[in-house]
Amino acid sequence: MAALVLIPLMAVGFRRLQPFLAVTDPVPGGVLVVEGWMPDYGMDEVLAEIRRAGYAALYVTGGPMEHGEPLSEYKTYAELGAATLAKLGANAPSPQAVPAQEAHKDRTYFSAVALRDWLRAHGPMPAKINLVSLGAHARRSRLLFEKAFGPDVEIGIIAVPDRGYDTRNWWRSSQGFRTVTDEAIGYLYARFVFTP
Fold this sequence. Notes:
Blueprint lengths: L1 H14 L1 H5 L9 E5 L4 H14 L4 E5 L14 H12 L6 E5 L7 H16 L5 E7 L3 H12 L4 E7 L13 H19 L4
Parallel strand pairs: 1-2, 1-4, 2-3, 4-5
Helix pairs in contact: 3-4, 5-6, 6-7
């Protein structure tokens, strides 16, 4: 009898996992922060967000590039993302790359710490940040930025839809299943295990 109730509840929870992770909950005003590793179509969404809302500043975060760095003039995802945004036409505000040097593990958190430290050094610290991330990575990114910045900075989040799979039926493709389950595990780790 319990299985008759539990199985439908689990199926509903399973279907809602991707929308839960790919949260969009922006805060009005402040600065815009972009994770520099996002694909180019994500950067197009960033430009649309800049035009829609207007921001005091635009920062791009990211650590060392994982592939192709010896051949690239950009050594970090922050530099690559800022260059991509500039090439696509982001000029007001001009994208500022803020690379994380030690981001081989817990990359999102160390990218947030690098940005926090850069903002402290160049002051003033913004009261509000809207973070742009890709799909199911969004909820974990916001959580890690909140841990890095603490309660004095309000962190909003904007999830760019991931075009790598059908987000409504994510479990029906290998890419969707791997991405969503990996991000769910990553979120649980960040929420309950990770300590700064």
